[in-house]
Amino acid sequence: MKDLGAEHLAGREGVQLLGLLNLYLEQEERFQPREKGLSLIEATPENDNTLCPGLRNAKVEDLRSLANFFGSCTETFVLAVNILDRFLALMKVKPKHLSCIGVCSFLLAARIVEEDCNIPSTHDVIRISQCKCTASDIKRMEKIISEKLHYELEATTALNFLHLYHTIILCHTSERKEILSLDKLEAQLKACNCRLVFSKAKPSVLALCLLNLEVETLKSVELLEILLLVKKHSKINDTEFFYWRELVSKCLAEYSSPECCKPDLKKLVWIVSRRTAQNLHNSYYSVPELPTIPEGGCFDESERDGAGQL
């Protein structure tokens, strides 16, 4: 099979696309959550005092709802999940601090991605999320998260690969450009983000699996051949690819089932006026309910290297 090279793309744009793809491939591992930490969360049974997969997944669902409420873009949500998971995989977090960490992850992502006029205020996010913490709690937790992630918050995510792969396909194909819906692919990615297991997948692989499954439903030989070239250029081996494609396929099957609450089926109907929002559960943000957040102590080396606790 021919390699995917600049000669197979359209001139200068092709060179730029491949250069960006190579950059993303170099960076992706650096911004992935620690697999050891994710595995520990996965292995944790439901318990009031420990963080389990169900609590993490529920918090990501909350982030999705929060992003929808404030009209934030998909990139903000995906980055917020990345920040959240990288921090959870690094630190031993107690469930009572999870709401505060989730809100902070959303605010940090919004400040990176959104235009200034679209960044919600800390007080508004506290009120709408009902996270039971104060602005000072948020400020302190944001500092802890930023420090633990070495202020490297702007990450290369599966969404970056999804957009880039989509653009590369459109540069190659002679088929109608609207045949491959980016909105649908983004919705499917958000469904995967709501499950902890997909944070263990390489972003490049997760994005390629989503595109591959969608192209298969379109029964397009041309698009499939382009994807195979992308897969080869990205050095994604068959074992890894088919393993994650199977998991993605199962997730999307459940996501599209009648029993599943689809993330993007419709906009949230919980719309309140600013006046109402200002009075919404006022006690939740005027009275601190969280105890002082202790920081210190490390995981045992056999658990998570270089980790701390909250």
UniProtKB/TrEMBL annotation:
<dbReference type="InterPro" id="IPR039361">
    <property type="entry name" value="Cyclin"/>
</dbReference>
<protein>
    <recommendedName>
        <fullName>Cyclin-G2</fullName>
    </recommendedName>
</protein>
<keyword id="KW-0131">Cell cycle</keyword>
<dbReference type="GO" id="GO:0051301">
    <property type="term" value="P:cell division"/>
</dbReference>
<dbReference type="Pfam" id="PF00134">
    <property type="entry name" value="Cyclin_N"/>
</dbReference>
<dbReference type="InterPro" id="IPR036915">
    <property type="entry name" value="Cyclin-like_sf"/>
</dbReference>
<dbReference type="InterPro" id="IPR006671">
    <property type="entry name" value="Cyclin_N"/>
</dbReference>
<keyword id="KW-0963">Cytoplasm</keyword>
<feature type="domain" description="Cyclin-like">
    <location>
        <begin position="61"/>
        <end position="147"/>
    </location>
</feature>
<keyword id="KW-0498">Mitosis</keyword>
<dbReference type="InterPro" id="IPR013763">
    <property type="entry name" value="Cyclin-like_dom"/>
</dbReference>
<keyword id="KW-0132">Cell division</keyword>
<dbReference type="GO" id="GO:0005737">
    <property type="term" value="C:cytoplasm"/>
</dbReference>
<comment type="similarity">
    <text>Belongs to the cyclin family. Cyclin G subfamily.</text>
</comment>
<keyword id="KW-0195">Cyclin</keyword>
<comment type="function">
    <text>May play a role in growth regulation and in negative regulation of cell cycle progression.</text>
</comment>
